[in-house]
Amino acid sequence: MDQIMTERVNQLEQWIQESDNVVFFGGAGVSTESGIPDFRSVDGLYNQQYAYPPETIISHSFYRRNPEEFYRFYKNKMLFPNAKPNAAHRALAKLEQQGKVRAVITQNIDGLHQAAGSREVLELHGSVHRNYCTRCGKFFDLAAILGMEGVPRCECGGIIKPDVVLYEEGLDQTTLQKAVRYIQEADILIIGGTSLTVYPAAGLIDYYRGKKLVLINKTATPMDGRADLVINEPIGEVFERFLKEGE
C-alpha cells in the first residue's frame, strides 16, 4: 500500500474511532477474498460460457420455464458452502460488537457477514441459506438443497425456490426501507467492494446526508467524485488493521 493510500486508511481509522454510527454497504468485492467470484470481473460469472447468458438463467421467467437448467447453473456457480468469512467480514462484526457499526447492508447472498458474527445484516438480494417450498412454504436450509439431485422438491411435491432476488424480481421493500433509514441517519457511510452500477442498490448512496462518504474498491467507480475518501485497495487489506487493534 503506497503512502497516499496508507494516509487515507489512517483517516478512515480516525473517523471510525470517533463515531458510533457507521453503516457499511457492500457488494460482490467483499466476498471475492473468500473465494466467491465477482459477477462482473474478468473471470467472473458473466464471462463464463453457457448455453444462455447468466442474466437469462438467473431470471425469474427462466427459473419458471426451465428449473432444471436454472438449478444446474445455480448449484455449480452460485453456491459456495465451504467459503469462510475474510478480514472484512470479521472486522465489521468486531466493529459492531464495539458499538461502532450500526448495520451492514449487503448485495451478497452468501451469508458470510452473519457467519463472521454480524447481527444487523440487511440482505438486499436475499440469501442462499433460506429456501422455501413454493407450494406449502416449508423452509429448507442450504445443506438440504445441496443434498438433493436436480430440481429440489418438497415432500408435498412443490419446487423449492431459494430466497434470492432473481432478475425481474423486485427487492424486498421492508429491507430496502430499513436500509434507506440506516443510510439517512448514518454518520459515516462506507461503501465497499461494489462498482456501484447495479440499481436500485446503487441508488441508496443518494440517501446519505453526512460528510464522511467512504468508497473502498480496487478500481474506480462512477461515484468516486462524490466521496469524501476513496481507497483503491482490496477491502480485506483495509479492514485487516481493525482486527489487530486491541488483540
From TrEMBL:
User: Record's family?
Assistant: Belongs to the sirtuin family. Class U subfamily.
Q: What name appears for this protein in its UniProt entry?
A: NAD-dependent protein deacetylase
Q: Where is the active site?
A: H125 (proton acceptor)
- Pfam families attached here? SIR2
What does it catalyze? N(6)-acetyl-L-lysyl-[protein] + NAD(+) + H2O = 2''-O-acetyl-ADP-D-ribose + nicotinamide + L-lysyl-[protein]
Record-linked InterPro entries: DHS-like_NAD/FAD-binding_dom, NAD-dep_sirtuin_deacylases, Sirtuin, Sirtuin_cat_small_dom_sf, Sirtuin_class_U, Ssirtuin_cat_dom
State its location(s): Cytoplasm
User: What keywords were assigned to this record?
Assistant: Acyltransferase, Cytoplasm, Metal-binding, NAD, Transferase, Zinc
Give start and end of each Deacetylase sirtuin-type domain: 2-247
Give the first-level EC class, as a single word: transferase
Positions annotated to bind nicotinamide: F39, I109, D110
PROSITE patterns recorded for this chain? SIRTUIN
Would the keyword Metal-binding be found if you checked this record's keyword annotation?
A: yes
UniProt-listed HAMAP family:
Sirtuin_ClassU
Give the chief site where it resides: cytoplasm
Required co-factors = Zn(2+)
State its Enzyme Commission number(s).
2.3.1.286
Question: Single GO molecular-function term?
Answer: NAD-dependent protein lysine deacetylase activity
List residues binding NAD(+).
A28, T32, F39, R40, Q107, I109, D110, H125, T194, S195, N217, I235
- For the ligand (Zn(2+)), the binding residues are C133, C136, C154, C156
Q: How is the cofactor bound?
A: Binds 1 zinc ion per subunit.
State the function annotated in the UniProt record.
Answer: NAD-dependent protein deacetylase which modulates the activities of several enzymes which are inactive in their acetylated form.
